[in-house]
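A quick aside before the break. I want you to see a complete sequence-to-structure record at least once, exactly as it would be stored in a machine-readable document. Don't worry about memorizing anything.
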Amino acid sequence: MNMRLVYPMLRSAQRRNLTRVYRYHIAHIGNTKDAEDLTSQTFIAALEGIRSFRGTGSFAAWIMGIASRKRLMFFRGLKPEIPLDEALKQDYLLPELAPGLSPG
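That is the input. The structure line, written in C-alpha cells, reads:
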C-alpha cells in the first residue's frame, strides 16, 4: 500500500465522515468534550490502522466500526465513584449472602 497515495485519500475521507462520527459520539455520550475527544481518537485509530482497511467495504462503515469500539472502550473506563462513608452506610461493600451460605 503506497502511503503517499493513502494519506490524501484518508484526509478526504475524514472530511466526508467527520460530522457523521461526531454526531454518533454526541448521540451516545451526550457530552461535547468527550464526543470531540472520541472523534479525534477515532480518526487517530483509523490513521494508525489504515493498513487493515481492505477496501472490500465502504470507508464509512470501517470508520464507524472504529467509532463504535472507541465508544465501548469509553464506557468500560467509567467506574462509579462512591465515597467510602456512603458505601458503608448503604452496605455497598458487603453483598448479601443467600440463606445458608457463609463467606469463605
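Two observations worth writing down. The mean pLDDT is 81. The radius of gyration is 21 Å. We'll return to this after the break.
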